[in-house]
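Ticket reopened. Same input as before:
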Amino acid sequence: MTGDKTIEGGDSCSEQLPQLTSVAVAGLGLIGGSLAQRLACRGMTVYGWDLSQDFYPQAVSSGIRCMPSLEDMVRADPDLLVIATPLKAIDDLLPRIKKEMNPQTTLTDVGSVKQQVLHSVEKAGLADSYVGAHPMAGNEQEGFYASSSDLMDNALWAITVADSTDYRRFLQVGQMITAYASNEFITVDAAIHDQAAALISHMPHAVSTALINRMVESPVANVAYSLSAGSWRDMTRVALTSPERTKAMIEENPQEVSSLLKTMADSLRDLSRALDQKDNRYLDQFFAFGNPYRQSQWEQRRLMNQFGQRTEPEHRTLTIDQSDWKNQLGSVSRNAQSVVSILSPSQMEIKQYPHL
Amino acid sequence: MTGDKTIEGGDSCSEQLPQLTSVAVAGLGLIGGSLAQRLACRGMTVYGWDLSQDFYPQAVSSGIRCMPSLEDMVRADPDLLVIATPLKAIDDLLPRIKKEMNPQTTLTDVGSVKQQVLHSVEKAGLADSYVGAHPMAGNEQEGFYASSSDLMDNALWAITVADSTDYRRFLQVGQMITAYASNEFITVDAAIHDQAAALISHMPHAVSTALINRMVESPVANVAYSLSAGSWRDMTRVALTSPERTKAMIEENPQEVSSLLKTMADSLRDLSRALDQKDNRYLDQFFAFGNPYRQSQWEQRRLMNQFGQRTEPEHRTLTIDQSDWKNQLGSVSRNAQSVVSILSPSQMEIKQYPHL
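Engineering reply: fixed in the latest deploy. New output:
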């Protein structure tokens, strides 16, 4: 272990950003492999490890220092250790990591649900070193051969923080995202992240799957299939991803997904009743309820048409009160603002996203 | 009225295709205007009429003979009269049409639900002259100024037939679609059409609307909005069309939409229960049920990747038994085959679509 780390309680109000020169990525699949290549491209020292190692020669030629075992990689004392394995592997890896990890190393991950990982990390006694993260990037492929350094172009990340989260470790993860991956992030707690992910991704995947199920069971399936056009294609595209992967994704966030599915079921049943009873008042409300979202989207389209694709909203500088950073950055996220750059521990550049 | 029409009971087995040189389009909005321009481009005599006439100069320059009144247009004795007004206007127009229409003229329409129009036509005493039609084309705009002759490029039409449908009138509509609009069609009865349209379009529009309603009411709306990416965008695109138009579309096909919404609600509620109870058997079934559709789509993608975008399946020639044409063409549709060309009253060229 090296002793030159800068993370110490005493300097948490220093105006210097914490050291970040090396990162280790456990799991070099689509996301881990893409992140490792991206960070290596941008000059970080990147260690990598994966259970399957047949692609190591290609990974090495992308600038990744491939390690024979997880333990070897952890013992290299990276500033950041990123877990990018499937979620179900994490409980087995954490005790092995804990045994070898320098307490100065910051542990993070890129899993698509955050409460479950947080519980695993707490159980393994690593909560003090941990800051969760989730990049909004991906496609329907998998494995290192599908990964690439540009998969994360323009990705927005969520960094998840808990009461125990250390600010300097948070800054390290934020620096990796902004300074090295050239991405942006919002800061949320794990429960809010999982609620939001269920709403925008996990539940819609289940709904899309339910739609193609209706076609398969339909007595007019082939006629419907022939006549299907844009709206059907859009709404069923995500149902074409591997059903095993979708099932796993939903099972990892069961409470939030289940609760939203119930609300959707109630809403569709009420709409059905309103159609049966010609309940015009209900129908009007159902179709008008989403107008705040529609108007925001229509406004985005108008701006796109007026100013073109590359209009970037203005950035502004936010001064961070380091004694209240979690509340402050949480409120920034609730206002649909992201952090695009960390200028110092007390100054960040933020950007406005479309909002309701 | 002219007396040179060729539709007579006596020659229904003739090998000559029925006369088709002129068409009249009532309602020159997005669909009617696009069809009128397309048919005029391709050499038909096209009459047009609309309630609002401010765009007539532009329509005339597109080759449409614009008429001051519906009655004037009907009295021009077109071979085909196409109703392309909003559905809710049809009940008022039909008696006016009936008063002036040459019995030789074939009446058709382009409405997005077919049972309702069929009932209106029967009520108006025009069923003997009528063959329903519905082109799968459109976008989120409306009005003549949004119309264009290429809106219907590659469109597939449904022609709807009933027990009373006359074969030569059917051939006229089929000729308009294939020979003049350069499109294809399938043949179905009105109930099957409305069931299929509810499945692939009307119900999914309602589901998409229910999705954006969930975001508007979410306590984490702005975080979710910021983090939303491809799957959310795809599944909510159709919810961005005018809610009034979506409401009208669903109200025009209430039974089929209501029934599918109930099935969707049951399915989502069962899935929610299965997540709560970790009912792995149910979850496996839910995610595997759509595999026949997935496999068909994956195969399409594979062919696209292998042979490129423009791979056209082979056509084959179908011999029509004119005493059994409805069953024969209905079975062609159920096998996901479309008619691409009418060679003679007893020979059609058909094409295979992807199927289950």
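Residues 314-352 of chain B form one domain. The mean pLDDT of chain B is 93. Please confirm and we'll close it.
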